[in-house]
Amino acid sequence: MLNNMIIRLLVYYAAWLLALSGIFYLFPQILYYVAQERKRIFVAKSLEFGADTVPFPLGNIEEGVARLIDPAHTIPVMVALVLAFGVTLPVTWVYRWTRPRKKYSQSFAHTLLVIPTSITLVVFLVKGSLALAFSLAGIVAAVRFRTSLEEPIDAVYMFMAIGIGLAAGTQLTTVAYLASLVFVAIALGVWKSNFGARPAVISGWTIVYPEKSAQVSEAGDTAIPTPKPCDAQIEVHATNVEEVQKATDLILNSNTKRWQVSDVINNEDGTVVVVFDVWFKKSVKSLSLVRNIEESGKGYINDVRMRGSNS
User: Fold this and answer.
1) Which H or E run includes 202?
2) How far apart are CA 241 and CA 276, in angstroms?
3) Which DSSP category does 219 fall into?
4) Residue 214 DSSP label
5) Does residue 48 sit in helix, strand or coil?
6) Nearest Cα to 210, choosing from 198, 222, 192?
7) Cβ distance 117 to 81 under 8 Å?
8) DSSP assignment, residue 285?
9) Quick one: pLDDT at residue 288?
10) Residue 285 pLDDT
11) Which of 81, 73, 78 is nearest to 115 (CA)?
12) CA–CA dist 33, 12 (Å, integer)
């Protein structure tokens, strides 16, 4: 049941909500520390033990250790870092589930997962200190981090991860939690609905839907071309989708012009059937492709069948 994306996300967010509620109920002092940290303005004051205390010199090891074990200062930091990681994890799941295989990047998924904790730490460092903020800007300008994002949606995921880090760093735990929850719901909804897959066809002031678009050509508009049907469909029978992915991805990438997952059928006995639409390369024989998949998944692929190919 946990292989269902919606159920997995609901269970995860509910578990987080129950865990946080239980911890805050059993240890209400944590909420007090978090609220106090939210009110701090200067970094120097966040290192003080009292309102009239002068920050200790950096060379005083004993006082540094005392600050480190003081719960008023360490608990808000730990809460923020753990929350930043926890609510970002489902965002990376949605990225993995919804991105096409050929456009998926493991390094980008890793970046999404760790960057909120980095942003949270930066917020704690520069909070209320203009000098530290300018110093950090100078360091970043000197190092010149650069990344090339091929798709606009990747930039949206990155922006979301940064926003979660900022919310966690400023102790806005509710904002970070709800932002993550709403984002994954919208991202999954847009992906599942395939919104905007085909451009709208306009005839005068009338919107003509895709199934009626072929009738618009006489009005002067260009009809949407019908995509070329696939050369064949391959059915892979296995215990779960992950096993199918391991056995097929590399083989399909190297032996076909292109391919896509057409359907995923969940059987009552717990097994799955993944249906692929494939477009063959001229030099590849369909039967050899089936044998390669069977050999690659030997031991955990139950059966491989092909439909619609004579080669």
Assistant:
1) strand 201-203
2) 12
3) G
4) G
5) coil
6) 198
7) yes
8) -
9) 80
10) 72
11) 81
12) 26
Q: Which two tokens stand for residue 108?
A: 């980008």
CA–CA distance, 247 with 256 (Å, rounded to integer): 15
Which tokens go with 281? Answer: 């390369």
Q: Which of 305, 311, 227 is nearest to 273 (CA)?
A: 305
Compute the mean pLDDT over every residue in the chain, rounded to the nearest whole number. 75
Which amino acid, residue 219? A
Q: Rounded to whole angstroms, how far apart are CA atoms 116 and 139?
A: 19
Task: Tell me: pLDDT of 125 over 50.
Answer: yes
Q: How many CB atoms lie within 10 A of CB 135?
A: 13
Question: Residue ranges of the alpha helices (H) in the chain?
Answer: 5-26, 28-39, 43-46, 61-68, 71-98, 106-126, 130-143, 152-169, 173-193, 241-255, 286-296
How far apart, in whole angstroms, are the C-alpha atoms of residue 93 and residue 176?
17
pTM of the predicted protein model: 0.56
In the sheet that holds 301-307, the strands lie side by side as 256-266, 272-280, 232-238, 301-307
Report the distance separating Cα 129 and Cα 46, nearest Å.
11
pLDDT: which is higher, 46 or 140? 140
Rounded-to-integer distance, Cα 77 and Cα 307, Å: 57
DSSP H/E element including 302: strand 301-307
φ, ψ for residue 104, nearest 5 deg: -75, 140
